[in-house]
Write a structure and sequence with these properties.
Elements lengths: L18 E4 L6 H10 L4 E4 L4 H8 L3 E4 L25 E4 L1 H9 L3 E4 L5 E9 L12 E8 L1 E5 L5 E6 L6 E4 L4 E4 L11 H12 L12 H12 L4 E5 L4 H14 L3 E7 L7 H12 L3 E6 L1 H8 L5 H22 L3 E5 L4 H7 L26 E3 L7 H11 L3 H4 L19 H20 L8 E15 L2 E14 L7 E2 L4 H14 L3 E7 L12
Parallel strand pairs: 1-2, 1-3, 3-4, 4-11, 12-13, 12-15, 13-14, 15-16, 18-20
Antiparallel strand pairs: 5-8, 6-7, 6-9, 9-10, 10-11, 17-18, 18-19
Helix pairs in contact: 5-6, 6-11, 8-9, 13-14
């Protein structure tokens, strides 16, 4: 098949500059890019073997080397041609990035004395110039490494240390090369944002004039350029923020030549299908095709309880259903998708890198070869909040733009164990209650997601003086900026009481409600 996505550079500043991030395999690579963009500076990710090409194409004002799961002294560790260091571009190495710089420039990297160091620790600043300017003498940082720098290369000096890590930050200011053993990109590093801003805005002096809302015209132009004057696009439309914004962008670019397909897989929230039909068919006047495939999905999921297997089955059936419908739209030669950066980093090795798989997404990869459609993915280089900014620029209603993310596999990843309609029905009702009570009070503003989970666990209860033995429901409420990390949030007690009472009194089959108070990491936002 042809798998030619809309170039990830859509929206990249035409004047050059920005920050090029080299992905050595860390799960936080997209988070680094996100932090840079928060400063109003464009960032882009590449793999080690494409650095030279990307430098020529992008002309970056700075380069950041990410962390990674490997050791630099292993024979199959990620490698990078050091020739770019002679260009004089400011470089910041984080974790593995610092270790690569150390080994490449003549220093030494060894296993950490006390083994793997993971979690919060106190960092003592020894040299507050430039990179650590304005950072408190003692500050909390996040460590995640099994190796450390034992000896710095010539020209480097120590900027900071911690009890478990004598070289937590280092620099060779003459060559504008800096390194951190700590992870400034994660929120657990109290002043990580200041450190990154010092590097990006002060040391590298990057221009901070980039904003996602300003690239709508560029995105539309790129779509028209890719699809041409007569090309037609078929797209799976879920009604979520990502697919909706992508659909409106594509619709703005090519109008009636966009054909949207909504697949009712039986795993939707209450009122989901009806809402999509009203908004996109009636209000936006898009060519919307609704396929009722509820029985087909539930039949395929019968007897399956393993999470990854469920995701793969749902992805396969979705592709089969979508393919059947797409083939009936014979003029379509392009496939539109609402793929985002986090979708890519959590599903496959991002940009060909070494990142470990967390979970599968049904809209990333796995497209059937006989479909032979060229990909149009205008959001592939953006994070969720950036997509929302584009949605607002496009004039989409706030209720859509600000709605919480809903996973592609739907309620299947919130119904632990085997998927049956008998279990989905009460989960659908419980989830609707959670949303109603939170949104009615305006508490959803600032939240990332809030939903119910059905557990394959039964517990004893008492209703009307009679013993019950029914299923347990959990409530998950989290805040996040991009879904890469998340913190649990506590609703007002009276709201929790109301939610619990309504679920137990109104939803048959549930007699107990629990609260999930775990953050990401170490947990994920979804339970499966």
């Amino acid at each position: 098949m042809s798998a030619n996505p809309l170039p990830a550079s859509a929206g990249e500043p035409q004047h050059g500059g920005g920050v090029l991030i080299v992905d050595f395999g860390t799960q936080y690579c997209q988070l680094i890019a996100r932090r840079v963009r928060e400063m109003g500076v464009y960032s882009r990710i590449t793999v080690p073997d494409r650095v030279g090409t990307m430098i020529e194409a992008m002309q970056p004002a700075a380069i950041i080397l990410s962390g990674g799961p490997r050791s630099v002294y292993e024979h199959d560790a990620p490698i990078l041609d050091p020739a770019f260091l002679a260009r004089g571009i400011p470089v910041l190495g984080i974790c593995y990035g610092l270790q690569w710089l150390t080994q490449t420039l003549g220093g030494a990297v060894e296993p950490a004395r006390d083994g793997r160091e993971y979690g919060r620790t106190e960092m003592a600043v020894k040299d507050a110039a430039l990179l650590l300017d304005g950072v408190d003498p003692q500050t909390v940082v996040w460590m995640s490494h099994g190796d450390h720098v034992a000896r710095l290369p010539a020209g480097f000096r120590v900027l900071a240390s911690s009890e478990p890590c004598p070289i937590a930050a280092a620099a060779d200011p003459a060559r504008r090369i800096y390194g951190l053993q700590v992870h400034p990109e994660v929120t657990h590093s109290a002043q990580g944002e200041r450190i990154l801003r010092n590097f990006v805005l002060r040391i590298a002096q990057c221009r901070n004039d980039w904003h996602p809302g300003n690239i709508v015209d560029e995105k539309v132009r790129r779509i028209r350029e890719l699809v041409g004057e007569t090309g037609e696009v078929v797209m799976g439309l879920s009604g979520g923020v990502d697919s909706s914004v992508a659909a409106v962008l594509i619709h703005r670019a090519i109008g009636a030549r966009l054909h949207c397909v909504f697949v009712d897989n039986g795993l939707l929230r209450k009122g989901e299908r009806e809402g999509v039909e009203v908004l996109f068919r009636d209000e936006y006047r898009m060519d919307l095709h609704v396929v009722d495939a509820r029985a087909r999905f539930l039949d395929a999921l019968r007897g399956v309880s393993e999470p990854e297997q469920k995701r793969k089955i749902i992805g396969k059936v979705f592709i089969d259903v979508f393919r059947d419908k797409a083939k009936s739209l014979r003029g379509a030669r392009f496939l539109g998708q609402g793929t985002l950066y986090p979708d890519v980093i959590e599903s496959v090795a991002a940009h060909g890198g070494a990142t470990a798989t967390i979970k599968s997404h049904h809209n990333v990869g796995g497209l059937p070869k006989d479909l032979d459609l060229v990909l149009v993915e205008p959001l592939r280089d953006l994070f969720k909040d950036e997509v929302r900014a584009i949605g607002r620029e496009l004039g989409l209603p706030a209720a859509l733009v600000d709605r919480q993310p809903f996973p592609g596999p739907g309620l299947a990843v919130r119904c632990l164990g085997e998927i049956t309609e008998a279990r989905l029905a009460p989960l659908r009702e419980a989830d609707a209650i959670v949303r109603e009570e939170i949104e009615a009070r305006g508490l959803h503003v600032g939240l990332w997601q809030y939903f119910a989970i059905s557990l394959p666990v039964q517990s004893v209860g008492v209703m009307g003086d009679q013993r019950t033995y029914e299923n347990v429901c959990a409530i998950r409420v989290v805040s996040s900026q991009d879904g890469m990390t998340a913190d649990w949030e506590l609703l007002p007690v009276e709201v929790l009481r109301k939610i619990s009472a309504r679920i137990i009194n109104e939803v048959r089959g549930l007699n107990r409600v629990c609260l999930d108070i775990s953050s990401k990491p170490p947990a994920t936002i979804e339970w499966e």
